[in-house]
Design goal:
This protein has 5 helices and 7 strands, in the order βαααβββαβαββ. The chain is α+β, with helices and mostly antiparallel strands. It has a 7-stranded mixed β-sheet with strand order 1-2-3-4-5-7-6, sandwiched between helices. The longest helix is centred in the first third of the chain and has 16 residues, at 13-28. The two termini are 26 Å apart.
Amino acid sequence: MPIDIRPIAPDDIPAIANLARATWLDAYADIISPEQIDYMLAQRYDHERLRAEAEDPQKWLCQAYLDNTLAGFAACEIYKGEFKLDKLYIHPDMQRKGIGAALVRHTAALAHEQGFPSMILAVNKQNEQAIRAYTRYGFRVRDKTVTDIGNGFVMDDYVMEKTL
């Protein structure tokens, strides 16, 4: 079945926020506290924030459909002079069907079109499933970061990079 990748429009925001919640609850339940999950979802997936990101010409948001079902989404931006894959989420029921790989290929093409020689992302150091997937997609660990995100929470991440 072909994977259909298209831009995210403002009307798509509620479905994207719901997909993010389902993915986070599945991926992070054993890694970070429920309080931190709720805090980060409220920070990053507020409908108004997602709408603003979808309308920002310096950000690229796309969604992937498989058999006319929303399966995943990605968001990219230019961050500190680098092309960053800021979000990549595949619904738990749709994982391991090539959707993540298709979104990485799509976002890598965007980075290349923008003239960037590589693409970076941040991934929780304990998210082994995502790290394995990113490694298969050609990313390598470049750095380690711990970022205070407020409310007593931190993000303990690897920064991974893919040469284009």
